[in-house]
């Protein structure tokens, strides 16, 4: 049984879903330290051929050691409408813009918690791309540890025989060496940029949010040609 463990991020890039589609169980690592100004609360799209960052404001003052699943979004400004308008401005002429409406529905009455909102968005995209992986929250598992020990213990709890890891975690996983002492195989998902044709003929900006691909090619091609 293959599993992957990833932090929930805001409208993640296409590689996130590619990894998700490779495994039987996908764990949202929602009970580790929240990192401000990280992909946990932001991502980028293409607007007029340049990168445009979309950031969810969060309540963090005096709450330095919050876990991801403890962070509340800040609704003192209408960022929900701003994000929707920016996405519409960027992609309203694209051939599959209407497919983004299914995602927009979640902006109407989002939960207060950041991770609940970002995970709901991720699941919506996964459903439309026909990804049938089982989803699990790390916070709901009776597992403890730090860094690679925590990842290994999650894998053991789920009965995994292979762990698919993001390439960025390779250094500390290999340095700590705990997986080498176990029966669980580690495979690293490479993070090369996925290049695809842009409807307007402009050059692809690497590592954009997956909604850029969806607006260009739709959910069906995402399943058939990417995943």
From TrEMBL:
InterPro entries: WbqC (IPR014985). This is WbqC-like protein. It holds the Pfam family WbqC. It comes from Lysinibacillus odysseyi 34hs-1 = NBRC 100172.
């Amino acid at each position: 049984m293959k599993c992957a463990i990833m932090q929930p991020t805001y409208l993640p890039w296409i590689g996130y879903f590619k990894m998700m589609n490779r495994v039987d169980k996908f764990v949202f690592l929602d009970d580790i330290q929240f990192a401000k100004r990280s992909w946990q609360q932001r991502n980028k799209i293409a607007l007029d051929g340049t990168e445009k960052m979309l950031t969810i404001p969060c309540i963090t003052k005096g709450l330095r050691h919050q876990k991801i699943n403890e962070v509340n979004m800040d609704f003192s400004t209408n960022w929900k409408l701003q994000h929707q308008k920016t996405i519409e401005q960027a992609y309203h002429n694209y051939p599959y813009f209407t497919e983004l409406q299914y995602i927009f529905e979640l902006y109407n009455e989002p939960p207060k918690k950041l991770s609940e909102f970002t995970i709901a968005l991720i699941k919506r995209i996964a459903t439309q791309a026909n990804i049938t992986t089982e989803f699990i929250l790390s916070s709901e598992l009776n597992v403890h540890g730090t860094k690679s020990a925590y990842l290994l213990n999650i894998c053991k709890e789920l009965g995994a025989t292979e762990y698919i890891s993001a390439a960025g975690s390779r250094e500390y996983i290999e340095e700590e060496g705990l997986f080498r002492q176990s029966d669980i195989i580690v495979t690293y998902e490479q993070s090369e940029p996925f290049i695809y044709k842009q409807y307007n003929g402009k050059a692809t900006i690497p590592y954009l949010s997956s909604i850029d691909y969806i607006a260009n090619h739709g959910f069906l091609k995402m399943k058939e040609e990417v995943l």
